Amino acid sequence: MPRPSTPLLSADRIRSAALAIIDRDGLDGLSMRKLAAELGVQAASLYGHVRTKDQLLNDIAASILQPVDMSGFDVDWREGLVRCARSYREALSAHPNIVPFLAYGPAGREESLRRLDILNGALVNAGWSRREATMIVAGLMFIVFGAALSSFSNGFSADPADYGDRFPNLDRAHLLPAVAAELDRDSFELTLAAFVRGL
Q: In this structure, are 135 and 192 located in the same domain?
């Protein structure tokens, strides 16, 4: 029997191709028809591996978030929050176009619910009420998702003339895009430290 000219489909291959489309074209750019064309198959072939586009997105999310570090809670709840937040931001920052999908919440994603269960349990065991634990986790997610979704520093023009005398306190704002990655990271760290210290 001759070897097929198109490599056989697999869940991993489908997820990788779909994520590449999302990274390149955004969430709205992903359709099952476009994904099938990218893989060199008919759209109907995909449905043997994924039932719906939402299931595919949930599978991609689980794959992206798999490296999130939940190990710090055996040391201290503060250390757990910091490790979780840093690794969460790192995972999301690599694929910012999928962040809006993830921001809707964890429903249907077993691994996300497991992480939230660990977070809430660690906080309740440390003495926080269930309501407070929920609010702390929500606050942490606001920080993480906000940091992963956009770059504050890249939002500035690199032309000094755009600021001039009209904005005297922004006279160095044109320098921000050149140090965006560093400044965005340091700003995230400052906010995370202030959040945890405030708690």
A: yes
Reported as a single tens digit per residue, the pLDDT across 78-111 is: 999 999 999 999 999 999 999 988 887 776 788 8
Buried b (16+ CB within 10 A) or exposed e, 87-114: bbbebbbebebbbeebeeebeebeebee
Quick check: 46 pLDDT over 60?
Answer: yes
Residue pLDDT, tens place only, 146-191: 998 888 888 899 999 998 888 999 988 999 999 989 999 999 999 9
Shared-domain flag, residues 121 and 156: yes
Residues 193, 137 share a domain:
yes
Greatest alpha-carbon span in the chain: 75
For the chain, what is the radius of gyration of the CA atoms?
21
Considering the entire predicted model, what is its pTM? 0.84
The total number of structural domains that make up the chain: 2
Structure tokens at 63: 């794959």
Q: For 40-129, where are the alpha helices, taking DSSP H only?
A: 43-46, 53-65, 77-93, 99-102, 110-125
Q: CA 127 to CA 84: how far, in whole Å?
A: 19
Residue 113 domain flag: yes
- How far apart CA 86 and CA 66 sit, in angstroms, is 14
Domain around 32: 11-51
